[in-house]
Design a protein that fits this description.
- With 192 residues, the chain is of the alpha+beta class.
- The protein has one domain: 3-Layer(aba) Sandwich (Protein Transport Mog1p, Chain A), CATH 3.40.1000.
- The chain has a 7-stranded antiparallel sheet, with helices on both faces.
- Strand 6 and strand 7 form a beta hairpin.
- The protein is globular and about 40 Å long.
């Protein structure tokens, strides 16, 4: 019995030595390179088709790559007269908490109170992408806080909800409206 254990131990030792003697492949090394100061160069009407996403879009001229985060599918800086708007595209599964909950959260971000579903028609409109997919477009402005306003679009699909949101001043939001709507209209969906 001792001989059998010794033979097994010897075989394991031989296998381990055999594996360690194999030629080692060069390893992949990762490096972090700091970006040069200043913002990213503008993106010129670039089509974006991220891997694994069931939609794509065209980036409006002049928009720059923005700060990414785990929540954002896409992020852009939108140059406006004297300021930079912050654009985010967020995809959430299921109903994403509901349209009204998200809308009222955004209103709270600029100092406005919640609204009922009946009041939404005062500032929200149904639009369509070039593909014919409907979405809700809204402009949120607080007259008492003109330094912070929101342009938002909500695309409800069967498996997820897509939120496009641009935050800037009231003047910035008004200036960004055409390029924001161009972004929304460029969205092309492959499913749902």
């Amino acid at each position: 019995m001792k001989r059998m254990i010794s033979n097994k131990a010897a075989m394991v030792l031989i296998c381990l030595l055999g594996f360690s003697a194999c030629k080692e492949e060069p390893s992949v090394k990762q490096y972090r390179v700091q970006k040069a100061p200043g913002s990213s160069p503008p993106v010129e009407n670039q089509a974006s088709v991220p891997d694994g996403l069931p939609f794509s879009w065209t980036v409006p001229s002049g928009w720059r790559q923005g700060k990414s985060s785990a929540m954002r599918t896409a992020s852009y800086e939108v140059p406006l007269d004297g300021e930079t708007g912050d654009f985010s595209l967020v995809r959430l599964g299921g109903g994403a908490g509901g349209v009204m909950a998200n809308l009222n959260r955004w209103r709270g971000q600029i100092g406005l109170g919640p609204v009922s579903a009946e009041e939404v028609s005062k500032f929200a409109h149904i639009r369509s992408t070039a593909q014919g997919r409907p979405y809700m477009l809204m402009t949120l402005i607080n007259p008492e806080n003109p330094g912070s306003a929101i342009l938002a679009a909500i695309f409800e699909l069967s498996d997820y909800v897509l939120f496009a949101k641009l935050t800037a001043s009231q003047a910035g939001v008004e200036k960004a409206q055409p390029s924001f709507e161009a972004f929304c209209q460029s969205l092309t969906f492959t499913g749902g």
